[in-house]
Specification:
The protein is α+β, with helices and mostly antiparallel strands and 506 residues long. It contains 13 helices and nine strands. The longest helix has 85 residues.
Length: 506
Amino acid sequence: MDQSISSPLYNGWESFPNNLNTYTPYRLDAIACNQHLSNEASRLFSPNEGQLIRVLHSDGDPKTLKNLQELEKYLQEYQNFRGKRIFLIPQQYSWGELMISEEAMRKLFTSIGVFAEFVDLVHAFGSKTGPVDETFASGPVYRANTDSKSFELCYLAKLVEHNGKSEKGVSDFSIRQMALYHGFDGPNDSHTFIILNPSLTFQTHFKQARSRDGGLRAMDWQDLHLAAVYSMSFRWREYVNYLEAQFGRKLQQTKSLMDPKRHFSTRNDTIVGDITNLRKSPSVEVKEEDEARDQNSVSFTDIQKLQMFKDRSLFVYHVLRLNLGVFQGLERVVTLRQRIEKGQLPDTACTNEDPAPLSAFISDTVVQGQRVDHLLRRIEGASTLFRTILDFRALETARRDSELIVGISKDTQRDARALKTITLLTLVYLPATFVATLLSMGYIRIKSERGHVVFEFANELWIFGILTTVMLVATLGPQAYMQRRRSKREKEDEKQIPEKALCDMI
């Protein structure tokens, strides 16, 4: 910018962190880190007019830097800072841009000499345009200079906050994050902290602690990390209680879990014998019974909601494990720095320093993680129960269908027996009917002469015989021809199949 101050304090800020001489090129590709930061600048940072940085000093009043010029002026004024100071850089809103411009961030980090590993944590913030990378929170990063006793430390904190939402079906809690950088300058005996997106819990707790402890001057550098750890673990117990209450409410709403009669029919459906009654039997009654039972039964929607609840619990369990890794790594760093400050070498035997403050947070996080793990097992058990209920209901439906088919089969057998009887009666009366019809035509006359029965045949009988034969041939001939043709075609198809298979093999 035209009004920015040119100073060797942040020479080469455009290429940060490649302009630093403190990083190891074998461990970090600073050029790629700089390019990645430039590519995501629009997502991560606000314009200069949207900047808001608050600085807390161990000596002096808090300062608010609202633009790049004020930041540059501050950095010039406090080039050789001694004591403790904290830079608070908030976000505009959840998953919004950090309230600092890209140029201001690069100049601030260059002047302080922030190591490049902290830039990786910066990418965890900004507008959410894709899946969140949780590897940022795998543990603290610590780099130390044993000659000057200077060191740098950074980590990402996951914490729970009330979101203030009152919509029905929306959780009262949200999982937020903040990043913390701690740089100790041994020669100047100065501690510089940079906190990205400081949570409301952290700010409230830290403000109360400072007012009771005499401000930043009396605060030890470990105290700020204890305040950060406190905010990371403060509301997890309340959130896990909320999840358990939500799960219990879902079980209470599903009344079918308490009464097996709501799933299975207690009425023994009777299949009525005749076809007329079978059409009305069990369709209407079963439909009414199923509708009454389905009002309080398990559906696939219940399983879907339960799976979503399980996914949320799995995410909570994952975040708790990430926080646990941060706590354990931070405890090792604090213990190591305590030994160094007492004049011991980093590789000497462990001292009897009591890490009780951090151990309490670690223990509490382990307990909350175990509770969530237990809740996951309960959810899995309830999900299995829901599926079992649906399977049994499917089996009951299959049983009803089977009984209905059996009833239809019995009625079909009864109808077949009736048709058999009709057929037998027809066989009995058909010859007599034929003889009576033939005699009534007049072609054959029966007379009794001198005690003997005499048959007289009319001269037109041959016409009857010829017509009957012609009609028989006309009836049976086409059927015989079609059957013979079909048989011939089937034989030809059978011969072609092996030939085609042989051609395919060749």
